[in-house]
TrEMBL record:
Keywords: Monooxygenase, Oxidoreductase
GO MF term set: monooxygenase activity
UniProt name for this protein: Antibiotic biosynthesis monooxygenase family protein
Domain ABM: 2-91
Cited InterPro entries: ABM_dom (IPR007138), Dimeric_a/b-barrel (IPR011008)
Domain of life: Bacteria
EC number(s) stated in the UniProt entry for this protein: 1.14.-.-
Organism this protein belongs to: Pseudonocardia benzenivorans
Amino acid sequence: MVLEIADFDIRPGTEEQFAAAYLEARELIAATPGFVSARMTRSIESPSRFVLLVEWQSVEAHTVGFRESERFPRWRELIGPFFAGDPKVEHAQDVR
């Protein structure tokens, strides 16, 4: 299992629109083979900061299966207009 951590800074004043766009865009991720779960969080101290946590069966499920699919451009079309800068995206695994 791999955890994708995507950190988004959203243009102030558009946070609610971003959250609504994410709910629509989430279905695009969920339709990807290798998708396990997704959860979007919003910072309490910095309300324009959102962190997306997506569990994938592998890094490739995200980087190839989703990012190289026809779903990814639509994903960016829905949520990209709200970005204040480029998202920071990393992958992590559980420490065992």
